[in-house]
């Protein structure tokens, strides 16, 4: 047995259900004992799923766990020492095993229920409301005659009706839904499915029935697609050759571009980037800065080093949009010719 099932049994000393087991009990003497013993079937025969269409469940708010009487419906099943499940009027019944089942609620949709008690002498299948709301994170709403089950996104996935005979609610097997049934694709969804086709093209396909089975929700107007806007924007091509005359010597003309502040800091906590390019050799230098005020100091240090390494003097400095313009900058430029 799985350790989680041991832990569950250890913490659930009192097992109960709002069922009169005197009325909901069958005689085991009439059954094949080999078929109902939890340990009698090999693991290879335990991979089955229970269809709600043929075996509906009753929702029980007083039941402490799920109860199932048929051995073949379990995906996994482990024998346990007889555990008593009490009912109405002091009635009781014995559980012989514990395991897991899978409920098929629609095409491609299923619910996995754990800690299901195997009670072969029971004549009913019970779903514990407390267990299903905790494990599946769903909500259950009751009224005088019906019950609805909704998932965490408030989408309906199952309904049920009240049975007057036992005063419990039974899952309505003819109205079990999966979530996608209630979400018809709109124009925006089809726009992305069809490789960003135009809205008019999508409307023609849907309204003129040019595509079979193309259901569409026309209640909302489609939003603007940013990807389409960006993809259709034009841009001026980068020239393959330099426009105008280039510098004839190293550091004769230097371009300085300061950008920032950026939206996200770098790993070194920098917000600005200063790029320097020598027009003669197209050789670039890049400096990351924490503050905009660090740009001039960094430029001065670079100028001293570049002139020392190349043996040439800086002739003209082109700066971008006045970000480096200041009295200090003018004083430094004038002092260096």
Helix/strand layout:
Blueprint: H1 3-11, E1 15-16, H2 33-36, E2 50-51, E3 58-60, E4 67-68, E5 76-86, E6 92-106, E7 109-118, E8 126-128, H3 129-136, E9 139-142, E10 146-150, E11 156-163, E12 168-171, H4 187-193, H5 199-207, H6 226-232, E13 253-259, E14 272-278, E15 283-289, H7 294-310, E16 316-319, H8 327-335
Parallel strand pairs: 1-5, 2-6, 3-8, 4-7, 13-16
Antiparallel strand pairs: 3-12, 5-6, 6-7, 9-10, 10-11, 11-12, 13-14, 14-15
Structure overview:
With 337 residues, the protein is an alpha/beta fold. The protein folds into two domains: 3-181, no CATH class; 253-335, Ribonuclease H-like superfamily/Ribonuclease H (Nucleotidyltransferase, domain 5), CATH 3.30.420. It is 21% helix and 28% strand. It contains eight helices and 16 strands. It has helices at 3-11, 33-36, 129-136, 187-193, 199-207, 226-232, 294-310, 327-335; strands at 15-16, 50-51, 58-60, 67-68, 76-86, 92-106, 109-118, 126-128, 139-142, 146-150, 156-163, 168-171, 253-259, 272-278, 283-289, 316-319. The strands form three sheets. Strands 1, 2, 4, 5, 6 and 7 form a six-stranded mixed beta sheet that branches. The protein has a six-stranded mixed beta sheet with strand order 8-3-12-11-10-9. The protein starts with a helix and ends with a helix.
Summarize, please.
The protein is α/β, with parallel strands linked by helices and 337 residues long.
What percent of the residues sit in helical stretches (DSSP H or I)? 10-25%
Q: Runs with pLDDT <50, length 5+?
A: 30-55, 174-182
Distance between the termini: 88 Å
The helix/strand series, from N terminus to C terminus, equals: HEHEEEEEEEHEEEEHHHEEEHEH
Please give the domain count: 2
Class based on secondary structure composition and strand pairing: alpha/beta
Gross morphology is elongated
Portion in strands: 25-35%
As a whole number of angstroms, the C-alpha radius of gyration is 37 Å
Q: Biggest β-sheet, characterized?
A: 6 strands, mixed
Alpha plus pi helix count: 8
- What value does the average pLDDT take? 77
Number of strands: 16
